[in-house]
Q: What sequence folds into this?
């Protein structure tokens, strides 16, 4: 079960998404940084960062790995954000761990959706086409394809 956590640890750039927070246009260059918890081997320390009006903003939380399905997680925010939770899943990942597709369930505040994430801030067209083809072959991921929007980065 721990293997998935090690694969996720590190920085990921959101390349393509249908998450409304990233599509509104006032938040740029979103990325995730996952750090293995020293206290609990089923948790990742989760930091979502982005830029707004030239300032770096951070949303901190903890991802707890599902006991039965190692690729599923529950995110819970820190501080006043502790009341907010979100369930997400690592749906696809290449063998080298250079890119992945995550899906997230509907919450009170957001619709269900998907992100294509990468270890690098940009992705070449060939890799993006490969990911979309793999998503097209998946009954679970196919519904998200038409709503995905590639983000324009200013930090690459």
A:
């Amino acid at each position: 079960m721990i293997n998935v956590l090690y694969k996720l640890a590190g920085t990921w750039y959101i390349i393509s998404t249908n998450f409304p927070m990233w599509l509104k246009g006032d938040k740029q260059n979103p990325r995730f940084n996952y750090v293995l918890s020293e206290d609990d081997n089923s948790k990742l320390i989760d930091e979502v960062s982005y830029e707004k009006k030239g300032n770096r903003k951070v949303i901190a939380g903890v991802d707890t790995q599902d006991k039965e399905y190692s690729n599923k997680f529950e995110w819970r925010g820190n501080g006043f954000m502790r009341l907010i939770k979100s369930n997400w899943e690592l749906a696809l990942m290449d063998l080298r761990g250079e890119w992945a597709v995550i899906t997230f369930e509907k919450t009170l505040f957001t619709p269900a959706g998907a992100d294509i994430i990468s270890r690098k801030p940009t992705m070449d067209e060939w890799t993006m086409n490969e990911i979309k083809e793999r998503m097209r072959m998946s009954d679970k991921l196919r519904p998200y394809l038409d709503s995905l929007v590639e983000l324009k980065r200013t930090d690459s």
About this structure: The helical segments are 2-8, 20-23, 125-136. Residues 98 and 147 are 23 Å apart (CA to CA). The beta strands are 10-17, 28-36, 43-52, 55-65, 72-77, 85-93, 99-104, 113-118, 149-150.
